[in-house]
Structure prediction request, 391 residues.
Amino acid sequence: MKAVALKENIWWVGGIDWDIRNFHGYQTPRGTTYNAYLVIDEKIALIDTVKNYLEKELLSRISAVIDPSKIDYIVVNHVEMDHSGSLPQIMAAAPNAVIVTSAVGEKGLEAHYHSKWKYVTVKSGDSLDLGRTELKFVQTPMVHWPDNMVTYLPKEKILFSNDAFGQHIASPERFDDELGSDIVIEEAAKYYANIVLPFGSQVQKALQALSALDIDMIAPSHGLIWREHISDILKKYTLWSANETDDKAVIIYDTMYGSTEKIAYALFRSFEEKGIPPRLINLKSNHISDIVPEVLTAKYVCIGSPTLNNNMMPTVAAFLTYLKGLAPKNRIGMAFGSYGWSGQSVGQVEDILREMGFDILPQIKLNYVPTQAQLDEINLDQIKIFVSDFD
Prediction:
């Protein structure tokens, strides 16, 4: 298999996962890549590896450029197994290689693989001389694991960013301008929302640490390599990490007999009349990982559920559990729903939104099938009053 040149003597040698459709519970309809990079100088460094079942593809691409046994260093920016899973096979092919990673990374690799490999541990500001080429390291803990770091080539102005700035895309194209920025930004947003969102403050620290670097190319560990739209993705990460939102609403719900759905549509019309663009999402037909990117940029988050056996619907509970773990901030939330005789679901939804630190709008809780008059009341009175309270 062919390697792809990034710059002179710097190669992409990763693996393409065309078939994966679920990544840790996150739907990946476009597949993904596990990117690894080869830097050739007087010494040879491999930066990151691939998931274990793509190790032959990795070795094939490396072999198209050099004999894998000549690798001197393997830089492990992150120990998670989608990046380090083929490390045992690579170490077997390059038995004299030394692993370069953070101190936390060394502990993680030993706990994963229980092998007596040779290590050099690095911290922010450390560098590794390959000859004419220098690798510099910046630790970026909790973006998104404690061991995370990035590798920078000052002369070539390339940042090997590991999980930061990644996307799940399987593609014959390797660069953002080859595929199209709209798709790459869309997938980068989904990736951030589902993986990086809980770590906004750490992302901001990492962005600050990287701000002094002169960057011509960002080479992440998943997806396309950024060379044309670097400023765009840096601006997006700045906004997303600050939990800055657009003045829009997302209305997420499940329904049994259509009553909660009627309330959802009434809310949709209300936000629309107020000039706030709404998005309506039924949990029966949308995967939670596709919904979170909408929450990423929405100021208003409305969650609706009927009551089932004194509880909210399981789909709503699952979504709220997932969303709570991602910890979005600076949102305005509202609970709504219909009920038969008990009606606990709306209060349960509201309690979770409060736990997440959302500002809370008055809940809407209607018995059985709402009348048109009740739906009109939502439209003409409640939403117009309580939305304006937060303008």
